[in-house]
Amino acid sequence: MSEELKVAIEAAKEGGKHALKHYDKDLTVELKDDNTPVTVADKESEEVIKNHILKSFPNAKFVGEESGGSVDEDEFWTIDPIDGTRSFNRGIPQWCTLISLCKKEGPVIGVCYYPINNQLMYAERGHGAYLNGEKIHVSKINSFSNALLGYGNPRYVKNKKSLLRIIELAGSSRSWEATYSIFLLTQGKVDAFYDGYGFVWDVAPFKVIVEEAGGKITRPDGSTWSYKGRGCVATNGLLHDEVIKLINN
Fold first, then answer.
1. Average confidence (pLDDT) over 1-21
2. What is the DSSP code string of 62-90?
């Protein structure tokens, strides 16, 4: 485990621990320009994570959901201190802390931490993906008619007919918190995931984790996932071409 991964794990735990102090409390909710909520818990937890990383890497650059930053840097850390703020605010335990380390060639470290259940998922490029120290792998389901599909908020899917089509054709489907769907996919519990919303801080950690678990992740049109743009399709790899075709035909 590299020093960067160790620090990312520590930072995620510290950020999650701080967020827990505010969980299921009566917080003042502000709406950002994109109409998504933010609270003092989000802002404070992001600063806790930044400060922890800066202790070990004083020249670190950041792209945070709450504080912004540039994806054009040669190297930067993404931070989503509370992924699932709406769930967090309503006392629903499907929220987590996300961190990644990104370089020009793509994300190289991904960390996802669910503090309520103390579930820590992480991956480093070339070294596999792990949940609480145990190696994880995507499923081996090779027929979409037998697959369990997870999907994000339909509001952000431009072509809603495409979402309805794959819901109809999948073996079964569920709409959890978007990140929780990918979290389950990397463990082989979900087979495919479709989302039109995710920004770089939502998806970058899973770009590493999904691929290190044996899966595949792209943009919904099948193009290579990159730091700029929104949305993704993640699968166990075996279903990817079929899912992309169903979405785009």
1. 97
2. EEETTTB--TTSSEEEEEEEEE-HHHHHT
Q: What is the DSSP letter of 102?
A: E
Of the pLDDT bands very low, low, confident and very high (cuts 50, 70, 90), residue 195 is very high
Distance CA 148, CA 16 (A): 29
Whether 232 has a pLDDT exceeding 90, the answer reads yes
- 194 close to 181: Cβ distance less than 8 angstroms: no
Single-letter code of the amino acid located at 73: E
Q: Rounded to the nearest 10 degrees, how much is the dihedral formed by the CA atoms of 165, 167, 172, 178?
A: 150
pLDDT tens-digit readout, 165-177: 999 999 999 999 9
Percent of the chain residues past pLDDT 70, beyond the cut: 100
* Segments of the chain assigned to CATH 3.30.540.10: 3-135
- What gap in Å lies between CA 242 and CA 235, rounded to an integer? 10
The Cα–Cα gap between 49 and 9 comes to: 10
What is the residue whose two structure tokens read 């166990």? 236
CA distance 211 to 72: 23
pLDDT at position 59, please? Answer: 97
CATH class label, 144-248 = alpha beta
The H or E element containing residue 202 is helix 200-212
Q: What is the CATH number of domain 3-135?
A: 3.30.540.10
Q: Which of 248, 245, 244, 242 is nearest to 145 (CA)?
A: 242
Q: Which two tokens stand for residue 169?
A: 């054709």
Average pLDDT over residues 193-203: 96
